[in-house]
Amino acid sequence: MMRAAQVGLLVGSAFLGMAAPVAAQSANLNAELLKDWTEQKTLMMKIADAMPEEKFSYKSTAAQRDYGQQILHVAGGNVSYLRFFGGQATAPAINRNATAKAEIVKALADSFDYGSALIAEQTEQSMMQTVQTNQYLGPSSRARVIYFLLGHTWDIYGQMAVYLRLNGIVPPASQRP
């Protein structure tokens, strides 16, 4: 009996000596998605602006999209996939045949603004609800749609960075202050 009491006292002392667990912190999914989305908009606006307008028709090879088309591809993809949200925000019209830098850059900005508005409309619960998309992505949570678009845009950013370097321009993310 004495031995059991000693063991109990030892175990109890060990628990008392342990640091209290840190209260779990709750991340806000919508805030994180909006942060990533707006940061990506900033970087994409910089890379879109980095190429002079006379080079917006530049292609690394004949089979590739030209620089302006790369930007329009991001803008069009954003709007196409964001429409699956079914939100209140109005989708911008994207002229996928635009060739003027100002119109192309505006389409990019508008597509990201549309995404920001839709993210702001969501609750944590609605962001995790499944929406029907296309055959490529299939049924997905709204959060997955945003993550898909972020990844897609990074892919295109990488291609655009090559276009800039082939024209002697350092991409914005690689520039040193």
Notable features of this structure?
2 strands, Four Helix Bundle (Hemerythrin (Met), subunit A), globular, 177 residues, 6 helices, single chain, two-stranded antiparallel ribbon, mainly alpha
Structural summary, described in words:
The protein is an all-alpha fold and 177 residues long. The protein has one domain: Up-down Bundle (Four Helix Bundle (Hemerythrin (Met), subunit A)), CATH 1.20.120.450. Helices cover 59% and strands 2% of the residues. It has a two-stranded antiparallel ribbon with strand order 1-2. A hairpin with an 8-residue loop joins β1 and β2. α2 (29-50) runs antiparallel to α4 (101-121). Residues 4-23 have low confidence and may be disordered.
In short:
The chain is mainly alpha-helical and 177 residues long. Helix content is 59%, strand content 2%.
